[in-house]
Design goal:
seven-stranded mixed sheet; 2 helices; alpha+beta; single chain; Nucleoside Triphosphate Pyrophosphohydrolase; 15% helix
Length: 136
């Protein structure tokens, strides 16, 4: 496996609904079996808000509103030789019923209270939690 030459930019979307956040259990190679927010890679020419709305709809079938920048994490996956900068955004649930839209990428999805997040968490989410960040 070739080591990345530069970090990749990821987007994680913290969606708030009824004092809970939406998490997906990953089925893909990087982070398989770990819980994360909807999200993915920032595409060329895309704003953070556009990426958040696109990824949320693609992965969960819901729309979001009031998207705002929250923070970033800087994570290195030593075993996989990958380096990610993750841009976290906070948003509010807008419309739709959350469901797994990409079963090849996620096996489970549910709403969780911040104080009761499932484990294990995907590295950027764990870094976020370990930093003391709280979206509420």
């Amino acid at each position: 496996m070739k080591t990345q030459e530069r970090p990749v930019v990821g987007v994680g979307v913290i969606i708030i609904r009824d004092n809970k956040v939406l998490l997906l259990k990953r089925s893909v190679y990087l982070g398989r079996g770990k819980w994360c927010f909807p999200g993915g890679h920032l595409e060329f020419g895309e704003s953070f808000e556009q990426a958040a709305k696109r990824e949320t709809l693609e992965e969960s079938g819901i729309t979001i509103k009031n998207v705002q920048f929250a923070t970033t994490t800087n994570d290195i996956y030593n075993n996989e030789e990958k380096h990610y900068i993750t841009i976290f955004l906070i948003s509010e649930y807008d419309h739709g019923e959350a469901r797994i839209m990409e079963p090849e990428k996620a096996s489970e999805m549910d709403w969780f209270e911040w104080k009761d997040l499932p484990s294990p968490l995907f590295l950027p989410v764990q870094t976020l939690v370990d930093s003391g960040f709280n979206p509420f």
